[in-house]
Design the sequence.
């Protein structure tokens, strides 16, 4: 089998799966095609090509993308998808959610966006070799809503269907029984050609099994050490963690270390100053150093709102044995973590309750690059799907 992946950048959240596929297929049978040249800022943080000859800088017209047996694409390239469909070749399109805020569902009323979405849905409806791999449950709901709208189910204009899914890469997705809103037969057929997906990170030293009896994350003599890493942007809602940890620190030994820069820095530092030494800020660090920081902390909190399409840091923290708390709105936390570890973006009081209690650890389970690669290569796409 010859396999190719089309994406926009060389990402440390995509390369582990690429390397796993190379290990199973051989370098001659795999190509990673990225459309945007590497920039220095990302390269300095570890987002770069390490010289693999199976990585190519190109675009959707790169010849190998039409020739391979299976194409997986994170780029919306309907011309390429339709060409492959006519030739009976398997195409797997993966994406984060379609309707991120602040525009949200209003995007569907943009003519160019509507036409592009209609072509994707038509492929799902009519091509036996075209499939959608949503990066998290929110992306799956967005696509189900699009499928309904494009199939004339106008209820989908107002509400997405309620979906259930298997919590693993390649997991089945289905519309909950008895749901009438946006749940026509056309929608159900589209959802039947979707399989749950995500980003897969490098294996860590703290990697745990999928056992449900992992227990509470124990903290050392320094108290509970909370970590956050990333760009300081408003939709990351870092203020929520600062408030929760700051209030916790009045009655519990707890600290928060924040690594990153961004436009919210001054505002967040002013907020943190109210809580003394409980919260500290540090400059950003390269990808490989983030994993070391995770091994030195107890709890990671993903506080982002719905603009966070996935959030691979959840998997990284789980790989390093951390206890992880996330929001219902972020793709990775809503898809991987149990409800007991979730809170709504901005709800610092609920986060405070979680931090004051015993934060349960969960295993990474099947959300690994190795498991995902095996799913891609063992699934009989177009035959017994």
Sequence:
């Amino acid at each position: 089998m010859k396999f190719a992946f089309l994406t926009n950048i060389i990402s440390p959240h995509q390369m582990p799966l690429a390397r796993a596929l190379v290990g199973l297929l051989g370098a001659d049978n795999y190509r990673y095609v990225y459309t945007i040249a590497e920039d220095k800022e990302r390269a300095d943080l570890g987002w770069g090509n390490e010289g693999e000859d199976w990585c190519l800088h190109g675009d959707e017209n790169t010849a190998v993308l039409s020739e391979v047996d299976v194409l997986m694409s994170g780029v919306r390239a309907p011309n390429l998808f339709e060409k492959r469909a006519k030739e009976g070749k398997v195409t797997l399109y993966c994406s984060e959610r379609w309707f991120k805020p602040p525009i949200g569902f209003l995007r569907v009323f943009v003519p160019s966006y509507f036409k592009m979405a209609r072509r994707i849905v038509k492929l799902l409806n009519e091509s036996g070799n075209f499939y959608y791999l949503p990066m998290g449950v929110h992306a799956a709901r967005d696509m189900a809503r699009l499928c309904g709208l494009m199939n004339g189910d106008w209820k989908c204009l107002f509400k997405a269907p309620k979906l259930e899914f298997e919590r693993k890469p390649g997991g089945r997705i289905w519309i909950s029984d008895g749901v009438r809103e946006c749940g026509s037969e056309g929608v159900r057929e589209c959802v039947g050609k979707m399989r749950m997906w995500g980003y897969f990170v490098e294996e860590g030293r703290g990697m745990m099994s999928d056992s449900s009896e992992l227990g509470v994350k124990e903290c050392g003599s320094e108290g509970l050490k909370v970590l956050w890493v990333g760009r300081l942007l408003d939709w990351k809602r870092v203020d929520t963690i600062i408030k929760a940890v700051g209030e916790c620190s009045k009655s519990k030994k707890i600290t928060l270390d924040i690594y990153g820069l961004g436009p919210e820095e001054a505002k967040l530092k002013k907020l943190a100053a109210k809580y003394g030494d409980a919260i500290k800020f540090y400059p950003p660090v390269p990808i490989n150093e983030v994993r070391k920081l995770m091994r030195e902390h107890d709890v990671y909190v993903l506080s982002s709102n719905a603009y966070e399409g996935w959030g691979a840091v959840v998997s990284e923290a789980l790989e390093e044995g951390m206890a992880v708390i996330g929001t219902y709105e972020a793709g990775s936390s809503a898809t991987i973590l149990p409800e007991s570890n979730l809170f709504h973006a901005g709800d610092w009081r609920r986060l405070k309750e979680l931090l004051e209690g015993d934060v349960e650890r969960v295993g990474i389970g099947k959300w690994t690059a190795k498991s995902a690669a095996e799913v891609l290569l063992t699934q009989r796409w177009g035959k017994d799907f």
Observations:
- Residues 207-214 have pLDDT under 50 and may be disordered.
- The CA atoms of residues 46 and 276 lie 33 Å apart.
- The radius of gyration is 21 Å.
- The first strand starts at residue 3 and ends at 7.
